[in-house]
Give the backbone structure.
Amino acid sequence: MTFTLMPDGVVVLRVTNKHVSDLAGLLHKKGRKAVRIDLLSR
């Protein structure tokens, strides 16, 4: 998996040869409050 920060501030996540269910919880940090999806697109 790779993360690419684009010049306009967009972060692109690229994953190859993985099922989406394998990624569940990957970006979650214990104790951190979840962010709503609609706030991520701002």
Q: What stands out?
A: Residues 37-40 form the longest helix (4 residues). The chain has one domain: 2-40.
